[in-house]
Each structure stands twice: as structure tokens, then as C-alpha cells.
Amino acid sequence: FAHSVISINASNTIVVIRTISGSAAAAGEAIDSLNWPEIIGSIAGDNTIFLAVKDLKMVPDVLKRIGAMMRK
């Protein structure tokens, strides 16, 4: 995960994760397998993942936790 993610941004309750080409599906699966209750859905393409976060108040925590995954 940490080697494939390029950037993480948010717009309202959508978190957008950019990855190196061809890595979004694997990175998205890694996030999905964590079963975070804050994330109500995800879509992964070739190099982008969209995460739908349940509530706007939960977005900062989701960003923090994903950021921590990048440092591992």
C-alpha cells in the first residue's frame, strides 16, 4: 500500500486516493479488508480510488488513518 499511493485528498465526504498505474484495485482491496465503519463504499479504477465516507465529521480521521498506512 505505502509504495503504491501517490496522494490522498478529500472533497466533502469523498476521499480520493491516487496510486501508481495499475495499483488502485489492490490498494482499494487493502482498505476494504479493514472494514472501517466510516467508509460506506469504494470504487477503484486503474490509478484512482474513491472512498465514500459516512459523515463529513469522519473524514479527518479517515485521512489520518490512511496517512498512517502510507508510513508503514
Question: Which properties best describe this structure?
Answer:
single chain; 4 strands; alpha+beta; 72 residues; globular; 2 helices; four-stranded antiparallel beta sheet
Structure in words:
The structure is a single chain. This protein is of the alpha+beta class and 72 residues long. It has helices at 24-32, 59-70, and strands at residues 5-11, 14-19, 39-44, 48-53. Strands 1-2-4-3 form a 4-stranded antiparallel sheet, with helices on one face. The termini are close together.
Radius of gyration: 11 Å
Residues in helix, %: 25-40%
The total count of helices amounts to 2
Identify the overall geometry: globular
Q: Would you tell me the overall average pLDDT? A: 95
Order of helices and strands: EEHEEH
**Strand coverage percent:** 25-35%
How are the strands of the biggest sheet laid out side by side? 1-2-4-3
The helix/strand class is: alpha+beta
Distance between the termini: 9 Å
Number of separate strands: 4
Low-confidence parts: none
Largest sheet report = 4 strands, antiparallel
